[in-house]
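Case study B.
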Amino acid sequence: MKVFLAALLFAAIVAIGVSILLEAIQEPSYVAFSTGGARVGNPGHNLVGPNG
Amino acid sequence: MASFVRFVRLAVGACAFLLVIAASVPCNAQQVNPTASSVKEQQLLQELNRIQGRVSIPDQRSGVLEQPAGRDWREFRNVTLRWIGGIAILGTIAVMVIFYLTRGMVRLESGRSGRTLVRFTAFERFVHWITATCFIVLAISGLNITFGRPLLLPLIGFEAFSEWSQWAKYAHIYLSFPFTIGVVLIFLMWIAGNIPNKVDVDWLKRGGGIVGHDHPPAYRFNAGQKAIYWIVVIGGGAVAVTGYALMFPFYLSGIEGMQLAQIVHSIVAVLFIAAMMAHIYIGTIGMEGAFDAMGTGEVDLNWAKEHHSLWVEEEQAKGHTPSGSTPRPIAAE
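Model:
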């Protein structure tokens, strides 16, 4: 049982660690694919509209 | 005078005749083909292979407006894949149910001896359980990506499905990393014991003893376990590589490569799930005493002798003696 719980803990630690690392090094697409001449802001989370 | 008129008539006639001949022969300098530059059918069909133009934004891939191979891929993703996955997974479940109802659990015929042999070390079990638990979450979250919308959404509604799918997607992405670590460690840890040999051929010929009461000899890993090992290593490797290609879109390839990555990832994944269901079955309810190997790491000596007799001989030759003792009868007072 101890080994099983240790495995769960290890998996969780690696997953959380990777999420922090990727959050730090990745950019959202509206930042990565814009230039000084293209004014692209945060498009928000709802790209469909208020009525779904 | 008459002869002159005759001469003129002859000359005019000859000229007219020559003119008719000349007119019937195509003359490039004079003839115009009005449809020469119009689009031919074959040209039109080839143009439809890709509709693209020039764009001014930095992402040049956005210049491709339409890629008709994408329609074929969508057909695969929405129709073909669901059939393959459905048949593989539901088919495996059906076969296991029928097998369990007819054959039942493979029993330990000589009963438990009470003495145990160490089968897997703590590290081996640790690596197995990292991989196994990550696999379960990856399988469920992955199946949600393929089957969630048609099967789960109608049951729980948009809000719940959306919330669940977001968490499932994060779990799928981030747990892929410990899963990959587990697969690599499994490959390194157990490669030595999983090279096929002649004993495996005999084991397979005797059906592994799964039907009837045969007990073909085997070393530490029998042919069925070796098959699972290579499915995990090769299948796990394939889903990992294609998965990372999908996770980092267009880092390695264009749109065609992404479509191929999704096709390989999804087909290998559903077949992997079917194979692992069989593995989980035999390691839990399918065979008495099997779970102990990954649970406590120690297996009953009689279990080892029945299913891995050659491995027991090797262990005893190394001086690894079974622990525990046979129950002694209580002396009457």
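Chain B has a mean pLDDT of 90. The remaining cases will be described in the next quarterly update.
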